[in-house]
Amino acid sequence: RSSTVSESEFESGFDARRRPVSMPRPASLNAFDLISFSPGFDLSGLFDDDGEGSRFVSGAPVNKIISKLEEIAKVVSFTVRKKDCKVSLEGSREGSVKGPLTIAAEIFELTPALVVVEVKKKGGDKMEYDEFCNKELKPKLQNLSKENGESVSASPSLPAFLLSDEYQ
Q1: Do residues 116 and 57 touch, judged by C-beta distance below 8 A?
Q2: 37-95, pLDDT tens digit by residue?
Q3: Which of 23, 27, 36, 124 has the most CB atoms less than 10 A away?
């Protein structure tokens, strides 16, 4: 026995199934973005006082990267704020003359299979930032840059400036 579904019921059910709950898609990088990643062409120092940062390429899904950032923040009792493909980690005000350590991470689409994760210090002490990056952030995010057992940084098709530790 077949059941008849009205067109409006079909469309409403179809639309609900068509829009799965998922993470927003990261902004795609164009040629100008890629050129600006090169240290010789990076003009962010003209506009941004806190130029400390790093970036890495990953084959991990965006939601996995964001989850890992949230996990790191939880371990060190940082507050997390998320909007689309941007994550802000903020430490407490205690013990820092320059205010709380604030770190911004943004995820960009390089190709459909690869993303660039850019991490920047937005506030706080530089030594505290360096210590946090070396002890917490880099060791825990390192696995994300090596999805499927292959090191993305070993890829000859990726420019070295996309994988830089420090830029200004």
Answers
A1: yes
A2: 666 555 555 555 555 788 888 889 999 999 999 999 999 999 999 998 999 999 876 65
A3: 124
Place of tokens 């829009």: 19
Q: What is the mean pLDDT of the chain?
A: 72
Give the whole-angstrom CA distance, residue 160 versus residue 163. Answer: 5
pLDDT bucket at 105, cuts 50 / 70 / 90:
very high
Q: What is the Cα–Cα distance from 121 to 129, expressed in whole angstroms?
A: 7
Is residue 69 within 8 A of residue 105, CB to CB? The reply is: yes
Question: Quick check: 26 and 109 in contact, CB under 8 A?
Answer: yes
The residues facing 16 across adjacent strands are none
Beta-carbon contacts of residue 67 (< 8 Å; ≥ 6 apart): none
Going from the N-terminus, what domains does the chain have, and what CATH number goes with each?
A: 23-163 (3.30.310.80)
Mapped onto helix, strand or coil, the DSSP state of residue 123 is strand
pTM above 0.85, yes or no: no
